[in-house]
Amino acid sequence: MMSLSIGIVGLPNVGKSTLFNALLKEQQALAANYPFATIEPNVGVVPVPDERLEVLAKIVGTNTIKPAMVEFVDIAGLVAGAHKGEGLGNKFLAHIRETAAICHVLRRFEDENVVREGAIDPRTDLDVVRLELQFADLATLEKQPEPKGSVERGDKERWAIIKHFLGEIQAGHTVRQAIENQKLGVDSATCEEVAKELSLLSAKQELFVINVSEQQLTESEVERMTDKYADEFGVDPAQVIVMCNQIESELASLDDQDRKLYLQDLGLRASGLDRLIASAYKTLKLQSFLTAGEKEVRAWTIPMGTTARKAAGVIHTDFESRMISARVIDYELFVELGGWKKAKDAGKVRTEGRTYVMQEGDVVEFMIGK
Q: What are the respective helix, strand and coil percentages of the chain, to the nearest 5?
């Protein structure tokens, strides 16, 4: 199954471990009030909220539900000078390197009882963290040897991308910004490949959690701050999640009914955690396909644009080479018709080949050969 790993990153005492504890619904990370309370990264796997699974389970008659999963890594607090080994810098950067995306936790709340490292506004804190990632990438890029003599076109293109990344970092931009600016004239997929090959930190997709106080957590204020910080950071508003990590920790300890009542009291439509996971899917261009049988109902995570053959391989590696075809129906139609048998009798289940591009919410049966 595809592993989606997101690193929770930020300065000390911004609420990273509190967020991680909420994600796990239990106190597995040490949320202590001093820098470096978290030394080794804590890893937690949390389910992707998906109301469709319970509906499918009732239709096919199973009690076993397995949602798609997201892996969150609580990485110890970064400090200025991390790229030079300040604090626990080298360890922090290595742990970030292993994740698919970065979730910046940025402090917006005021609390004189919680030690503050850094400035008093999210933008300045973000600049500190990004600068450390950029310095680390600069060191990596400067070590790359220039190809000499008669070289292949691919090597020339790779070197041009490296020089482009170097120039952009020296100009104060991240590698992610360099890829998306499209100034080089090379397609972004090739640039992504080079950045991935070199494990460049500032090339990773980013999410931004603005950690606010309970008093700031109103629907109108959440919307205002989402737009404000999306504009300041130069990102899509979908990447910005305004939430109160302390409240999320409290919500996580409640059952579903009490959670709903608590959210209603706060005047919020959804919890911050649900919005964070949804944002992670959107930012990383991921989607889910569904399997529904008597043994279990399950959601599987795949990148957008994945073919049926590759999707089969997510279920089991052998299935990719042995897949013959796929029986596919849209979730809404599957529910409307009442399950596989009625859908097949109505002629609404399609038979698709290996190259079929999977769509969000496809309910699938893979036909696998020997």
A: 45, 20, 35
